[in-house]
Specification:
The protein is of the alpha/beta class and 427 residues long. The chain has three domains: 103 residues, no CATH class; 130 residues, no CATH class; 176 residues, 3-Layer(aba) Sandwich (Dna Topoisomerase Vi A Subunit, Chain: A, domain 2), CATH 3.40.1360. 43% of the residues lie in helices and 13% in strands. It contains 19 helices and eleven strands. The strands form three sheets. Strands 5-4-7-6-8-9 form a six-stranded mixed beta sheet. A three-stranded antiparallel beta sheet has the order 1-3-2. Strands 10-11 form a two-stranded antiparallel sheet. Strand 8, helix 16 and strand 9 form a beta-alpha-beta unit. Helix 1 crosses helix 4. The longest helix is centred in the N-terminal third of the chain and has 20 residues. It is elongated. Pfam families: DUF3322, JetD_C. InterPro entries: DUF3322, JetD_C, UCP028408.
């Protein structure tokens, strides 16, 4: 910025760069008010008289901009008749007609044009879900494309600006190919790996899952003419078959093994596990696989393993209801977050080896929890809440955590055995 508040080209570029950062995503979705007016704050006669050389330099720099074809926008000049300095012609304001001109000023022209072109391509492909969009439609005249453009005007891609501007061309073409194929086969019932689209595999789908969910959700809301959410389930949005939700369990009792043909370690879809003819006396639900594999035989017990946060499946298993259930997770905030979620489905589940005494007993085996779980956590007992509070406030050390596999197994075995004599656990 020049003296006395007047803006030189460098200051305007800085101002436009700030406007770009705050607005370019909205601009891609046709938001914003145009033209954009940048006031240059030309000097008064007194200011000019005090800094005549500086004002002349300021005028020359704007004159160079005004005659530079690479600098877009309309520079508006004003004339002033000053008693002491005579008639002066001064740059007064800069008018920019749209985002593309701002992009040039801030060095983002190539990215803007690429994102704009790709957003237009997406709108053409997505605007009419019942149409098979071919190359003729994509390259049609503006008059022929008018219905598509009108139908697609509500689609928003600004949140994907960086990807649209920077993604390799092959990835963008793959995205279009996936959207076209899903339009033509809205309820294929295929698994992801079965999609007959060149270059598309589970890795590509995984890397672009969020983008596909957003785009397909927008498309379905537009087709239904509603603002209601379309959900975040990619399989449901794309009409694809999901892989079975598998659960691994161990039968810790010979009679339970006999009930399922002698099998002691079973991995099967949740609905098949739920249908097993089991009547266990109690169940242990453990966060990690190796912990479950380490369990010894226990009278009447089963052990369900390695669900992490996906504990909703336990609500679908009828032979868990009304049985004493013990949850054993890592002694960190995420372990308690999983317990909190589990109690939404099994309200009477007891925690196991997730107490302060266990934590302090294994001080030499503590690790650091890099990213604690977000709270508050509902459904915890006062004792459990006290441990969580201690972890979050660094009562025992900075971001303490104890992985369940690190707990001394003889100590753990004693605590597990204690659950066999009482239904009342830590709750």
């Amino acid at each position: 910025m020049a003296a006395s508040g007047r803006l030189d080209p460098a200051a305007v570029t800085t101002l436009l760069r700030k406007r770009w950062r705050g607005g370019h995503r909205r601009w891609l979705d046709a938001a914003g008010s145009w033209p954009l007016t940048i006031l240059l704050h030309p000097p008064t006669e007194r200011e000019t008289a005090r800094d005549l050389a500086g004002v002349r330099d300021w005028i020359e720099r704007w004159t160079a901009v005004d005659t530079d074809p690479a600098r877009p926008g309309e520079l508006i000049w004003t004339e002033r008749q000053w008693p002491g300095l005579g008639r002066q012609r001064l740059p007064e304001r800069l008018l920019l007609t749209g985002p593309e001109q701002v992009a040039v000023w801030v060095g983002e022209q190539a990215r803007w044009l690429r994102a704009q072109e790709r957003a237009a391509g997406l709108r053409r492909v997505m605007a009419a879900p019942t149409m098979a969009v071919d190359q003729d439609a994509v390259s049609a005249s503006s008059e022929d494309r008018a219905p598509l453009d009108a139908a697609g005007r509500a689609l928003g891609f600004g949140r994907h600006f960086d990807w649209l501007a920077d993604a390799p061309a092959v990835d963008f073409e793959r995205l279009l190919a996936v959207l076209r194929w899903l339009q033509e086969h809205p309820d294929s019932g295929l698994y992801v790996r079965q999609l007959p689209i060149p270059g598309i595999d589970t890795k590509w789908i995984g890397a672009n899952r969020g983008r596909l969910v957003d785009l397909l959700g927008q498309q379905q809301r537009q087709a239904a003419d509603t603002g209601d959410t379309a959900g975040t389930d990619l399989h449901a949005l794309a009409g694809l078959r999901r892989e079975p939700d598998l659960l691994r369990i161990r039968m810790l009792d010979p009679d339970l093994r006999a009930a399922v043909g002698g099998l002691g370690d079973i991995t099967a879809p949740v609905e098949q596990i739920a249908a097993l003819p089991l009547r266990p006396a109690r169940a242990f639900l453990v966060e990690n696989l190796q912990t479950g594999l380490a369990f010894d035989d226990l009278p009447g017990a089963v052990c369900c393993m390695a669900r992490g946060y996906a504990v909703e499946a336990y609500a679908a298993i009828p032979w868990l209801r009304g049985r004493p259930c013990h949850y054993w997770g890592d002694l960190d905030t995420h372990g308690f977050a999983i317990l909190s979620r589990l109690r939404q489905h099994l309200p009477d589940v007891h925690s196991l080896l997730m107490d302060e005494a266990t934590l302090l007993r294994h001080r030499d085996l503590w690790q650091r929890e890099e990213k604690p779980a977000a709270g508050p956590l509902a459904g915890l007992s006062p004792e459990e809440e006290a441990v969580v509070e201690g972890l979050l406030t660094d009562r025992w050390g900075e971001r303490v955590r104890l992985e369940q596999e690190r707990i001394d197994w003889e100590y753990a075995r004693t605590q597990i055995s204690g659950t066999l004599t009482s239904r009342a656990g830590s709750r």
